[in-house]
Every structure is written in structure tokens, then in C-alpha cells.
Write a structure and sequence with these properties.
The chain has helices at about 10-35, 70-85, 140-145, 155-160, 200-205, 285-290, 315-320, 335-350, 350-360, 360-385; strands spanning about 55, 65, 115-120, 120-125, 170-180, 185-190, 195, 230-240, 245, 255, 260-265, 270-275, 295-300, 325-335. It has ten helices and 14 strands. InterPro entries: Znf_MYND.
């Protein structure tokens, strides 16, 4: 019947949806608590740390831990000297858990999909997107787009309902560490981080280009004019030396919030979430975008305490590049690692993927949440058609 709107209790649906989201978060918090409480072991003698006898990390790489000076010296001479200098492992950090699978899961939370080293700086790249592998519809994540106390809109409901609208934004988690042998403090410019596509990927990425959307190309001969940056949407510092940086919280190492420029002394490391516009007619999921990327470039410059606080570090990059003073860490994607991480999704489907990577309970909760959001969207669309307010 034309104009018919089903009678739906939107308050009940909203409450149900929020309860489902809360349950998902609670389940994830419980799993992460396991990782947080998991004890480290001495990398030489395998002695487990205790609350009264914590292990000490290597001050340069922080990727190994020891119970005593004796173990540290012995392990360094036989094994760690080479691995520390070669950046074989990222810092041992619970926020960048690339080793320990959560309970009931077959994979750790943060797969290393790309890594690179240059002039004493190292970078490791992992996925930062949704657990359903779909590209985000809105940049900055759902929370920052909806607003904590703002009413739900149809656009936000579309963005939150998987499969309703194809996403465009690929989110990466990037850990960067300074292991400079000269003990040189470095500034990493978050907004300077870019992604470079493969030659095959450039035209596919550009198919999703919106009218008026800027596109940048590298003019370096060895890169053959491939897409640079994929129209970057945002960059954010999320952790410093393993500690989470909450919204509104100040971090002394963040020297320029506008460009997300972070000071790293030797041994220090930072985690960034960086987004790129990568979606298009043939790219709707994370793994489709990853398959078209060749590497990520993370720029860093030597820290100068005499630089004016009003000077943007992003503005300093071009001049520093002309003087050949920019350290560019090129983290090359390992397509075998990408294939291994997303194999369950591509061969068995979304439910199997979420189950193996995040647990059976969370897969069920995600399914329930998707159903509730879809029903809520249906009701909201009906109200819009009749001119009702939401």
C-alpha cells in the first residue's frame, strides 16, 4: 500500500541496538583483559615475570625482555645483537598484539602486513578497520562522525549498517619506532604518511575518485606516476610507548597536533591510525584495497628544538626533502601475510572469519547487532518517506 509505514517501536530498537553494541564491547574488553594480564617471559631463560619481579626490556628495541642483567648480556651476544639492529620484531606492546591469539581465536589481534627500516627508524603496518572487513563509509570512524550526544541520522545509520552502502576509507594501524644508532631524536609526521599503489592498482583505485577529489601522483621515475596517498582522510596518534592517548588528553611528545607530528627519542615508539580513500566500484573490503598497495611511506626528520612552535612540520617536509634530510621509512606489504589474514573471509565467509579472528561469541553478537541496525534503518527510512522526525 502506497505510503504505508510499519509500526515499529524505534525506542525499543535503539535500546536493543545499543545493548548489542555494549555486549560486543564487553566481550572484546574481556578478551583484551586476558592479553593485558598475560605474563611476559624472559627471552633467554623463559622465566615468567611476576608482580614483584617484572622483566626489563631492551632499552633500544623493547622487543625482548629479561629477568636479569646476566640473561640480557648473554642473549645479546648470541642472538639479540643482530635482531635488534635489523628491526626483526616490533616493540613488545599489548596495544600492538601481533603474537598472542585471544581466547577461542586462531590469530592475534594485529597482523603485521607491512614493515620497513631506514636510517635507524622502523615501521610496522597492520589493519585498523572494522572486524567485518568492509571499508568505512565515513572517515574518522563511527564515533567521531555521529558524536556522543547527537541524534542518529539516516546517513549515520547507513554507515553503521554493513552492506547498505559501499565504504571508501581504508584504515591502517602503524607503529613507528626510533632505534637510531646515533641516539638522534626524530620527528614522525603522521599527516605525511602516504600509501603507494602497485602499477595494476592505480587505475582501479582511481575508478572510485569523486568529482573534485584531489589525486596526487609521485613524479619519481622508479614509481611510474602511481597514486600517492589515495586522498588521505585523517591521521591520529593513538598510543605512545604502549600507553593509550585518550581524546582530549595531552601528550608531551605530540609537538604539532595539526600535523600529528610526534617526537621519538631512541627506543620510543608511537602508534598511529591513518585513513586513506581507497574505495571504488571494485573495492569495498579491506583485503581488496590491501592487494593493490605496494608500500606505505612514513616520513621523519631530525628534531630541532629551535623550530618555532607556530611552524607546521608538514611545511618543513618539502624543504627538508630538497636538502635530502628526510628519513623515509618504506614499509613494503607482504601479500602472503595479507592473504593469510583474510583467507577465512575469502574462502568461508564473514562469519567464519570473525569467529576465527575474534571469537565465536563476538561473531554471534555482530550478527545480532547487524540485524537490529538493519531493522532500525528500515523504520527510519519509512519515517523519512512520510516526513516524520527521527
Amino acid at each position: 500500500m502506497p505510503g504505508y509505514v510499519p509500526k515499529v517501536d524505534t525506542d525499543r530498537l535503539m535500546a536493543s541496538s545499543m545493548a548489542g553494541i555494549a555486549a560486543i564491547r564487553a566481550g572484546l574488553d574481556e578478551k583484551r583483559a586476558f592479553v593485558k594480564e598475560a605474563k611476559f617471559f624472559c627471552d633467554r631463560c623463559k622465566k615468567q615475570e611476576t608482580s614483584t619481579s617484572p622483566l626489563q626490556a631492551c632499552s633500544r628495541c623493547r622487543s625482548v625482555r629479561y629477568c636479569s642483567r646476566e640473561c640480557q648480556v648473554a642473549h645479546y651476544k648470541t642472538t639479540h645483537k643482530k635482531s635488534c639492529a635489523n628491526f626483526e620484531e616490533p616493540p613488545l606492546c599489548r596495544a600492538f598484539n601481533h603474537k598472542v591469539p585471544l581466547p577461542g581465536c586462531s590469530y592475534p589481534e594485529m597482523p603485521i602486513l607491512a614493515q620497513g627500516v631506514s636510517e635507524g627508524m622502523g615501521a610496522w603496518v597492520s589493519t585498523g578497520g572494522s572486524i567485518d572487513c568492509r571499508l568505512a563509509v565515513l572517515p574518522g570512524g563511527i564515533k567521531s562522525n555521529t558524536g556522543k550526544d547527537q541524534p542518529m541520522s539516516v546517513a549515520h545509520a547507513l554507515a553503521m549498517t554493513p552492506g547498505m552502502v559501499d565504504g571508501k576509507y581504508l584504515s591502517l594501524t602503524i607503529l613507528v619506532q626510533n632505534r637510531s644508532p646515533k641516539a638522534k631524536p626524530m620527528i614522525v609526521v603522521g599527516l605525511g604518511i602516504v600509501a603507494v599503489t602497485t602499477p595494476r592498482g592505480t587505475p582501479i583505485i582511481l575508478e572510485g575518485k569523486d568529482p573534485g577529489e584531489p589525486s596526487r601522483f609521485l613524479d619519481y621515475p622508479h614509481l611510474n606516476g602511481r597514486v600517492l596517498g589515495l586522498a588521505k582522510a585523517s591521521a591520529k596518534l593513538t598510543h605512545f610507548n604502549g600507553k593509550a592517548i585518550k581524546d582530549g588528553e595531552t601528550c608531551p611528545a605530540l609537538k604539532d597536533p595539526k600535523t600529528c607530528a610526534v617526537l621519538l627519542n631512541v627506543g620510543e615508539y608511537a602508534m598511529f591510525t591513518v585513513e586513506f580513500r581507497a574505495g571504488g566500484p571494485n573495492i569495498t573490503h579491506d583485503f581488496q584495497a590491501f592487494e593493490l598497495l605496494e608500500h606505505v611511506i612514513v616520513p621523519a626528520i631530525a628534531y630541532d628544538p629551535n623550530i618555532s612552535p607556530n611552524k607546521s612540520y608538514a611545511e618543513l617536509l618539502p624543504a627538508a626533502a630538497d636538502r635530502d634530510e628526510v628519513c623515509e621509512v618504506r614499509a613494503k606489504f607482504d601479500q602472503r601475510a595479507v592473504e593469510a589474514w583474510y583467507r577465512d573471509y575469502k574462502t568461508k565467509g564473514e562469519t567464519a572469519y570473525v569467529t576465527s579472528h575474534y571469537g565465536e561469541a563476538r561473531a554471534k553478537m555482530v550478527g545480532m547487532g547487524n540485524e537490529a541496525l538493519a531493522e532500525m534503518l528500515k523504520a527510519m527510512m519509512g519515517m523519512v518517506q512520510t516526513g516524520s522526525s527521527i
